[in-house]
Amino acid sequence: MNQEEDKIEESAEKLINSAVVSHQEQTFLQKFSAIFFDFLKMAILAVITIGLVRYFLFKPFYVKGQSMEPNFHENDYLIIDELSYRFRPPERGEVIVLHSPSNSDYYLKRVVGLPGERVKIDNNKIIIYNETHPEGVLVEEIYLDQKTTGSLVQTLGADEYFVLGDNRGASYDSRRFGPVKKEEIVGRAWLRGWPLNKITKFSIPNYNL
Description:
209 residues, 12 strands, four-stranded antiparallel sheet, Umud Fragment, subunit A, elongated, alpha+beta, eight-stranded antiparallel sheet
């Protein structure tokens, strides 16, 4: 009789232990599932956030060609700020990315002339005529060690900009394709992230205008 009671108690204990283990396994699975789904939600939100930032605010841009040398070189990795120009117009001296007027490419150029101004290039010099300087003023570009070739006079419209490449002898720019409209400008070069020894946050040059 005692042996039968022992067997019954042993069976009951096994059932209890099995139920405890099963409960622990279920609790672990529930915790794991909660953690997994929390991680999944965070990952999805992170991807959406990065996508929105990249699409609407900042975009990477690789420099191609030599038109902006010596200040920008082939394969420089730039971060383009697409937000600022939604709240203010481009400023003289800023380096911008713009849609090509003739194909699907993008150009990297520097803003030299602003809306409503008259730009004159003559004798390797750039002269700006505006309300502040109706008689004209010479543009002094401290970031260049070369002359601006060409000869032209261009009056800019209310939403037009005159852009030039820093490599004035080898740049396809407003001297060839004319003024750039505001709607064609993608954004401004904000940061150079590569190469590592040339990481730079860009600032606007000081002019005498």
